[in-house]
Amino acid sequence: MADLIYFEHPLNERIRTFLRLEHLFLQVDHFRPLADEWSNRAAIEGLLNIISIFGRSDLKTEILKELERHTSNLERIRQQPGVDMQALGQVLDDLEQAIHQVYRMDGQIGRRLRGNEFLTTILQRSSIPGGSCNFDLPQYHYWLNQPHEFRHEQMSGWLEELLPVREAVALLLNLVRNSSLPTQERAQQGLFQRTLGSQAPAQMIRVGLPRSTTLFTEISGNKNRFNIRFLDAVENGKPQQAQRDVDFLLTACIF
How deeply is 212 buried, as exposed, middle or buried, from its count of CB atoms within 10 A (0-12, 13-18, 19+)? Predict the structure, then answer.
């Protein structure tokens, strides 16, 4: 499976937000250990985007609802024959721990970070093209020229506030991604459509293609149905839908 590229598409707003948070945390993870100024700028940019997401809605409640929903679903599975009780027990323990850690968070997620004047000043200027230039933000310029160890330690302290919710989101996405087995499918002339069952709505669509492919996907859909278009990657011009049949792996993640 390592030779596949996976294209993912969320089918509800909650999963869409979780995927964006995962993406941003990975961005921060990649750039934070690097010592150069531009890597630290990229890490700060990722952190500020995370703070912005947490400021738009009550994600703490959304995350707790999702954790509790998964717990209820897995408790029902416990009664079915052939269940690996040890593995199930471990997942339930992880969910219980995540619920406990998120409940313990004081107030809205990222509240202290949004109250950090240094970070909020950068955030306000970041909406302007080039707004984080050294003459616009001299304090930021000063911070970027401090020893790498100091910057790394400070960013670690800022991220620590977000650790419980990061772990909860990672757990939820892992459960969703592994909730269903992939099936081998074929898109006729580059187009695949499917209607979804209403009793157990899908959370996410995953499409696996060989890494050597010249195709990428455009996925659209909701809890009732989805469409997948396979497009030829072109160097110039608008990508066109493939006119050949395309074999791929499909996972409709239902949990």
Answer: exposed
